């Protein structure tokens, strides 16, 4: 329902609301308890990421970075920057970007006011099989753009289809190998010498 109504909001009014929301979030972050901020971030993460943020080997360093940003009274941009750097630099997640071998498609809006384009580009550069699309005019709410959502679905379908084709090829190769091994085992039973001839 919110999305249906959002289509009827004039652009200047929507921009004003977003600007006000950013200002309000900055004010709230200035006085927020760092642990509450960490918990808020963890709630927006996957189960694995949240566990790493809360109890990972370097979770204390992530919390310290959030505390430092809150003490400096930075708005949302500073907190986002510090948190992303802290998480990446302390390896709070149980994996490294460089270890992810599957294809990854990164979309980022060039007008995103919450996560800098450079941060998204740096992450994509560390992913071995990543490609990145920068959406002109795209904001942090990029998935609300039907063009982007359509592109995400098309890309996901292509990746699933390619993965399925790879899986089918791998299964067929495995079946051929098993048939060959079974045939060789039967031949060995028929020829007790194991294919060796006298004098070898």
UniProtKB/TrEMBL annotation:
<dbReference type="InterPro" id="IPR050471">
    <property type="entry name" value="AB_hydrolase"/>
</dbReference>
<protein>
    <recommendedName>
        <fullName>Serine aminopeptidase S33 domain-containing protein</fullName>
    </recommendedName>
</protein>
<dbReference type="InterPro" id="IPR029058">
    <property type="entry name" value="AB_hydrolase_fold"/>
</dbReference>
């Amino acid at each position: 329902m919110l999305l249906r109504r959002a289509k009827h909001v004039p652009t200047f009014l929507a921009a004003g609301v977003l600007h006000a929301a950013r200002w309000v979030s900055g004010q709230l972050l200035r006085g927020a308890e760092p642990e509450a901020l960490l918990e808020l971030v963890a709630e927006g993460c996957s189960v694995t990421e949240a566990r790493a943020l809360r109890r990972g080997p370097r979770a204390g360093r992530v919390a310290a970075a959030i505390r430092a940003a809150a003490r400096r009274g930075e708005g949302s941009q500073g907190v986002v920057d510090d948190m992303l750097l802290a998480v990446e630099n302390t390896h709070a997640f149980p994996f490294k970007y460089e270890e992810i071998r599957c294809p990854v498609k990164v979309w980022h809006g060039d007008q995103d006011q919450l996560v800098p384009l450079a941060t998204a580009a740096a992450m994509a550069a560390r992913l071995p099989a990543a490609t990145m699309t920068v959406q002109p005019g795209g904001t942090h709410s990029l998935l609300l753009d039907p063009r982007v959502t359509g592109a995400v679905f098309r890309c996901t379908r292509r990746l699933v289809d390619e993965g399925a084709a790879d899986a089918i090829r791998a299964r067929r190769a495995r079946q051929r190998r098993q048939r060959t091994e079974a045939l060789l085992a039967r031949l060995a039973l028929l020829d007790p010498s194991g294919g060796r001839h006298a004098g070898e």
